[in-house]
Design a protein that fits this description.
Blueprint (H helix, E strand, L loop, with lengths): L3 H4 L28 E8 L6 H18 L5 E2 L2 E9 L4 H13 L5 E4 L3 H14 L2 E4 L16 E3 L4 H12 L5 E7 L2 H16 L3 E8 L7 H10 L3 E4 L8 H6 L8 E3 L1 E2 L2 H4 L9 E4 L9 H13 L9 H17 L6 H8 L3 E4 L2 E5 L6 E2 L2 E7 L8 E8 L11
Parallel strand pairs: 1-3, 1-4, 4-5, 5-6, 7-8, 7-9, 9-10, 11-12
Antiparallel strand pairs: 2-3, 12-16, 13-14, 14-15, 16-17
Helix pairs in contact: 2-10, 2-11, 3-4, 5-6
Family: Belongs to the leucine-binding protein family.
InterPro entries: BCAA_transport, Leu-bd, Peripla_BP_I
Keywords: Signal
């Protein structure tokens, strides 16, 4: 608990993190009798990250249904889920997690939408000796410097993103410039990308940083043009994105290919200037080719007025599947030591294919996707089209704990 204050500054690490939607508590009813397995899910249910939470909650609920074949039970025990809103405030996340552990008596924690929230809660998982599934917070420190044996992460981490971004464009002799906001998020993202790209033989010809509050990036982009790279790799978050100005200054016409991580569907709608871009994606519903994803896409569109699952939906589903698969192996026992024994090295099927919890740091190794943004008839935003799937081996991040 003493680490909480020091972790509050990490609350900005929000970019690709997610959890739930409807407020309050929800119970997934089962038909059998016996004990109840309780799962507490922490998420930003209101505010700026509400859409991320909605995606993950839908995925989590669907994942429980899929993994239990619709019974909502494991070994005769029904599953109950309690959702709590962290408000994207680490101190609130700690309060809500404590409530889940002490008043609701949950057997598992899941979350959260924010890396700051998640880092604040991690010590409670250790204190109360409860398994915590981290989804979808991405900060490397979660499975790095702040790791404890009770946490397992189905979400990918920042280094996996960087490795995927490098794998999509880097190679021997490729010249790359990077562009990022001038604070820790940008510095860390560029460092991880640079390490991965240089390992593949690429040369980083310029690291350009901009004031995160800036609205005019002319000077920054002119420096990038003068460095004459083959690619510009952008690490960015926030409403004042540089995409329109990149298009206005015609970087792609000057032979500079743009690359970045494809965001969720609402954010894709502002990336029209980047049609033709090559980069990477955590998930888009047409990218994976497996039975679990087929089920997710069908059920999601059937139940939610034709909406397809978005960026963080499969993560919620994967978190739920991992819990159920572990409980099947322990025959419904929720003792943390038994769960840790079966979960370390455990592989399980997800909408993104096979995930495996690495024994050393409990990070789920998983596929990401090299993509190209293309226009498609009837779709009002640039669509990530698969170039190739990046295997869990290709995107494996360094062990940092």
């Amino acid at each position: 608990m003493k680490r909480v204050a020091g972790l509050l500054s990490l609350a900005f690490v929000l970019v690709f993190s997610a959890a739930c939607s409807d407020s309050g508590a929800g119970e997934v009813e089962g038909s059998g009798s016996g004990e109840t397995i309780k799962i507490g899910v922490l998420a930003s249910l209101t505010g700026a990250l509400e859409s991320y939470g909605k995606q993950t909650q839908r995925g989590f609920d669907l994942g429980l249904e899929y993994a239990t074949d619709g019974s909502m039970e494991v070994n005769g025990k029904k599953i109950e889920v309690v959702y709590e809103d962290t408000e994207t405030k680490p101190e609130v996340a700690v309060q809500k997690a404590t409530k889940l552990l002490e008043e609701d008596g949950v057997d598992f924690l899941v979350g959260s939408s924010s890396s700051g929230d998640t880092l604040a809660v991690l010590p409670l998982a250790e204190e109360y000796e409860k398994i915590m599934i981290v989804e979808p917070a991405v900060a490397d420190s979660i499975t790095g410097s702040e790791f404890n044996k009770y946490l397992f992460r189905t979400a990918r981490n920042s280094s996996q993103d960087a490795v995927a971004g490098a794998a999509a464009i880097a190679g021997e002799g490729v010249k790359i410039a990077t562009f990022a906001p001038d604070y820790s998020f940008g510095w860390d993202g560029v460092k991880a990308f640079k390490d991965a790209a240089e390992d593949l033989g690429a040369e980083i010809v310029l690291e350009e940083y901009a004031d995160p509050a800036a609205t005019d990036f002319t000077a920054n982009l002119q420096k990038i043009i003068e460095s004459d790279p083959d690619y510009l790799f952008v690490v960015w978050a926030g409403a004042n994105s540089p995409w329109n100005q990149i298009a206005d200054m015609k970087l792609q016409d000057k032979g500079i290919k743009i690359s970045t991580g494809a965001p969720d569907i609402p954010a894709l709608s502002v990336m029209e200037p980047l049609v033709g871009m090559e980069g990477f994606s955590v998930y888009y519903h047409t990218l994976p080719d497996n039975e679990v994803n087929d089920w997710l896409v069908k059920e999601h569109t059937d139940r939610f007025d034709g909406e397809v699952p978005d960026l963080f939906t499969p993560g919620g589903m994967s978190a739920a599947i991992s819990i159920v698969e572990a409980l099947k192996q322990t025959e419904g026992e929720t003792d943390a030591d038994q769960l840790i024994e079966v979960m370390e090295g455990m592989s399980f099927e997800t909408p993104k294919g096979t995930m495996t919890f690495r024994e050393e740091d409990h990070q789920a190794l998983q596929s990401l996707y090299a993509i190209k943004l293309e226009e498609q008839e009837g779709v009002p935003y640039p669509v990530p089209v698969l170039i190739r799937e990046l295997s869990p081996e290709e995107t494996e991040p360094p062990i940092m704990n």
